[in-house]
Fold this protein.
Amino acid sequence: MADKLIIFDTTLRDGEQSPGASMTRDEKLRIARQLERLRVDVIEAGFAASSNGDFEAVQAIANAIKDSTICSLSRANDRDISRAAEALKGANNARIHTFIATSALHMEKKLRMSPEQVLEQARLSVRFARNLVADVEFSPEDGYRSDVDFLCRVIEAVIAEGATTINVPDTVGYAVPELYGNFIKTLRERVPNSDKAIWSVHCHNDLGMAVANSLAGVKIGGARQVECTINGLGERAGNCSLEEIVMAVRTRKDYFNLEMNIDPVHIVAASRMVSQTTGFVVQPNKAVVGANAFAHASGIHQDGMLKARETYEIMRAEDVGWSSNKMVLGKLSGRNAFKQRLQDLGIQMESEADTNAAFARFKELADGKSEIFDEDILALVSDESVTHEKEQYGFVSLSQHSETGERPQATVVFTVDGREVRGESDGNGPVDASLKAIETHVKSGAEMVLYSVNAISGSTESQGEVTVRLQNSGRVVNGVGADPDIVVASAKAYLSALSKLQSKADRVAAQG
Ligand code: KIV
Ligand code: ZN
């Protein structure tokens, strides 16, 4: 019988650590629900001890998600571990993931601890965590660059204390596939009690090899858990991408011979949800979830595909959630067709009131745009008017005037903690004038480090999706806004980024 490969998703923890990707509690909850639909085995929901916001997000996810195991990261100390256990109380299946660095470099320069102190702290932390939950994962941070003899001692000790999963991170993305696979194999062979735990791989993508390294850890090393994120989101060059791992193992079942719980038909919806929530656009040629991943442009390929699709296709687009016969909605589409489309896209609204708000927004959009594509629907369900998320700054209305040769003027009405205010300004262009109008009230002092506009469905009728990245006092956040009017989309994105900047103010820098 084939072994099972556990899919551990860390989009909401490691993925969120990428600059600007921080998410609100409600955004995380929405993504967690999508991960549950995808039948991810373990959802790392956050780092409960890092901030009150993260604590609440882990708690909300633990209370709401019943099928997947919910995990919180924690440093190897009693306070962090207690916070994690507290946040996870409502979970059906709870896991505490505790970590401490084991490479000489990290121990000496970052922790300023001796190897013996690290060993002792790892041992005590796992013992403490095991008294609170039955499922404890231990990670030796920078494990791949650690001395192998020392690492074996640490791992043996934490398994003896009851760690149920041993995760070996390539924290800085330094590994190459064969070496990483053999590294896991060596550890499993040398640690005397290695059979008492499940082995896991956690690879970063600095050299573009996170997926290949993880697969080598599975095939050569015998790991049976892969840690990954949707779209490969994560610090620097990101983490191992969930969609690539899952489709590699599934498509090459002949080679890997592993079973997974994942239902891949929800992959594309999860990818879009994560990209629209974080503002991290998916590159068109990204495997599995890129817009071109299943597009065939050359005549020879198209001809081959028409004769037999297997000539150029190794996976079926519809298996990962690209609809084969895309039904385009328009202003005559009724509520049932709209609800059916939400269902096909794997979107579950929180309540009937939310479905009504989404449908009203859909009708509004369809009044000005003849065809509504899946991308439009995904954007509108994330809109503040539909999610009812109480952001500090909310968009109300905008008017602007621009004429060749004249300086544009804009008036923006928006809410600050529910109270309506109006800002007016001129600017270099209509977008500049609108954002300056907002700043006349907010006076955030934030620096804009990225502004990008993307046509959601490719034509000039399309909604514009704007991403704004702001930086202030060392904090970086992304705001996303969508609207057929790109000036309005820009104002929405800017207000959303300002709200995130504010809510992030109390967060402490997370380690790891
Ligand atoms: O990359 C890393 O080392 C981590 C650990 C905290 C697991 O994310
Ligand atoms: Zn990591």
DSSP finds 18 helices and 16 strands in the chain. Residues 14, 169, 171, 202, 204 surround zinc ion (ligand 2) (CB under 6 Å). Residues 335-382 form one domain.
